[in-house]
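[Discussion] Sanity-checking designs against the backbone

I'm trying to build intuition for which residues belong where. Below is a structure token string of 157 positions. I'd appreciate it if someone posts a full sequence so I can compare it with mine line by line.
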């Protein structure tokens, strides 16, 4: 690893650990434990908490080009995981919402993910597990604040 000034060492180590965390999550998908593509999992997770949403709203939420979101939603639609519905507020744009099948696939993958996390934390104390959760929430909320884009969480309205 490249030498970094002491003041930046902790930040560099955190960045490196986040890189590894992303890698491990990707590897578990490659081993076939999850059935959904990463983009499908993320879109369905958002729609589970905040449906229905338009392509534009999804594009803004994910900070992706609308054509990218359209392709990803199209793949979900072809698999029967989402459907397009009229805007409940009377707008012109169609909205996207998850189907029962889409939510079923999402929950199945989430259970697999949770079992994987549980297997890693099996030797951890409840206090350490809660501390990790609290730090991750704090970190993610700080990112959201910087980006000006809060992300919905289960149990929040």
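Best answer:
Here's mine. Compare freely.
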């Amino acid at each position: 690893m490249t030498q970094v000034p002491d003041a930046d060492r902790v930040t560099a180590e955190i960045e490196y650990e986040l890189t590894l965390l992303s890698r491990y999550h990707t590897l578990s998908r490659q081993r076939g434990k999850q059935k959904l593509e990463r983009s499908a999992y993320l879109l369905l997770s958002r729609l589970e908490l905040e449906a229905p949403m338009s392509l534009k709203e999804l594009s803004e939420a994910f900070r992706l080009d609308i054509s990218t979101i359209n392709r990803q939603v199209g793949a979900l639609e072809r698999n029967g995981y989402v459907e397009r519905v009229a805007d409940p507020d009377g707008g012109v744009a169609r909205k996207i919402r998850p189907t029962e099948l889409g939510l079923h696939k999402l929950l199945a993958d989430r259970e697999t993910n949770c079992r994987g996390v549980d297997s890693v934390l099996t030797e951890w104390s409840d206090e350490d597990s809660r501390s990790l959760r609290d730090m991750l929430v704090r970190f993610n909320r700080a990112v959201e604040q910087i980006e000006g884009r809060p992300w919905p969480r289960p149990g929040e309205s």
